[in-house]
Specification:
It is built from 10 helices and 16 strands. By secondary structure, the chain is α/β, with parallel strands linked by helices. The chain has 2 domains: 270 residues, 3-Layer(aba) Sandwich (Aminopeptidase), CATH 3.40.630; 111 residues, 2-Layer Sandwich (Alpha-Beta Plaits). It has an 8-stranded mixed β-sheet with strand order 1-2-4-3-5-16-6-15, sandwiched between helices. The protein is elongated. The two termini are 26 Å apart. The chain binds zinc ion (2 copies). One zinc ion binds next to loops.
Length: 391
């Protein structure tokens, strides 16, 4: 067995302890004060130099020298009421680590320990980014970057990982190029004119207009897009009206726009706004459209992704590395990739004796802890390999 894998396995109980502590004490995006303090204490105990960034984030440095590789973990939890019945389940009502960021943090702490032990032989600097607020726009990554996470020292490359319920423990999935989509939030308010439902000619019915608008927008998404490039518009919330016999004044809708194509993304945002306003105007109603720009798409850098694939094959064997089928999920890791070569892989966490398990953002999400040393090994090995190969 590879000696890094061996080192990671030796640290399994500590990594599990870290993960369980963070799991038990989840904090919402940009409120990760206790989590930040815990990470700081753990780094302190390993004698690893670190500082606070973005209020609840941490940057830590191991090694020295100009060549620099960054490793990133996100640390925030979700507003979900946990239903796992684990002995270390969340002690905070309505907050849960349902996206595995507790595992990401614990695995990066495990990697930190492995790298610190080998600090003298590192051929450069490893920069660890413990990042807040992945789950909430504008995304902790954009704030980390704005506050200088990619300066002094400037990393040459960055890697991140995410636990993945659709692959078994001990498997890494990674793709070159498109990996996760851009994700924007959309809000509509349609103002009609209230009336007695028996006298529709005296009102302007925003519910009928909303129905037409939803169908129109789906056509727009289909016909404005190169069919070879994926794109999604989901209208996921619609509210209006209160009784069987009243035409309401107003309908509110919410939705999400996903894409891998930044050009189409810009174009279709303008079209959605214009078409919504025009269609409502045609019926004598008005429409306010608010678009909250979310994360850009994650495109894995070819060189970085290839490097990660080779590291993973070295650790887990040829069969342990498969191609990741891109998803229309959003991930603020995208912001790092706008500045330096970046790659993001998925770490299988499905127990071997199960064919499926509750997914990410599910109240019953329970990753197999046997995967944790694999993630710590992957993070530390890629840092050592990359610094050695890029002296
Ligand atoms: Zn998530
Ligand atoms: Zn996540």
């Amino acid at each position: 067995m590879n000696d890094i894998m061996q080192s990671a396995i030796e640290r399994t109980s500590q990594i599990i302890e870290d993960r369980r502590h963070i799991h038990r004490n989840p904090e919402l995006s940009f409120q990760e004060h206790e989590t930040c303090a815990y990470i700081s204490r753990r780094l302190e105990s390993m004698n690893i130099q670190h500082s606070i960034i973005a209020k609840t984030g941490i940057i830590a440095l191991i090694g020295s020298g100009e060549r620099c590789i960054a490793l990133r973990a996100d640390i925030d939890a979700l507003p979900i009421e946990e239903e796992t019945n684990l002995e270390f389940a969340s002690c905070k009502k309505g907050i849960m680590h349902a996206c595995g960021h507790d595992a990401h943090t614990a695995m990066l702490l495990g990697a930190a320990s492995i790298l610190k032990e080998r600090e003298q032989s590192l051929k450069g600097t490893v920069k660890l980014l413990f990042q807040p607020g992945e789950e909430k726009v504008p995304g902790g990554a954009s704030i980390m970057v704005a506050e200088g996470a990619l300066e002094n020292p400037k990393p040459d490359i960055i890697f991140g990982q995410h636990v993945y319920p659709d692959a078994p423990c001990g498997e890494v999935q990674i793709s070159i190029g498109p990996t996760m989509a851009s994700a924007d939030e959309l809000y509509w308010t349609i103002h009609g004119k209230g009336a007695h439902a028996a006298q529709p000619h005296q009102g302007i019915d925003p519910i009928l207009i909303a129905s037409e608008l939803i169908l129109h927008l789906q056509s727009l998404i289909t016909k404005s897009r190169n069919p070879l490039l994926p794109g999604v518009l989901g209208i996921t919330s619609i509210h209006g009206g209160s009784a069987t016999n009243i035409i309401p004044e107003m309908v509110e809708m919410k939705g999400t726009l996903r894409s891998f194509d930044p050009e189409w993304r810009e174009k279709v945002m303008i079209m959605i706004k214009e078409h919504s306003e025009q269609l409502c105007a045609m019926h004598g109603a008005t429409c306010e459209v608010t678009i909250l720009r979310g994360y850009p798409a994650v495109h894995n850098h070819e060189g970085a992704a290839t490097f990660a694939i080779n590291t993973a094959k070295g650790l887990f064997g040829e069969a342990g590395v498969t191609n990741f089928e891109p998803k229309m999920w959003g991930e603020d890791f995208a912001y790092y990739g706008q500045h330096i070569p970046a790659a993001f892989w998925m770490l299988g966490v499905r127990p071997h004796d199960q064919h499926s398990m509750p997914g990410l953002h599910n109240a019953k999400f329970t990753p197999d802890e046997q995967a944790l040393p694999y993630g710590a090994a992957m993070m530390s090995k890629i840092a050592i390999d990359w610094l050695e190969n890029n002296e």
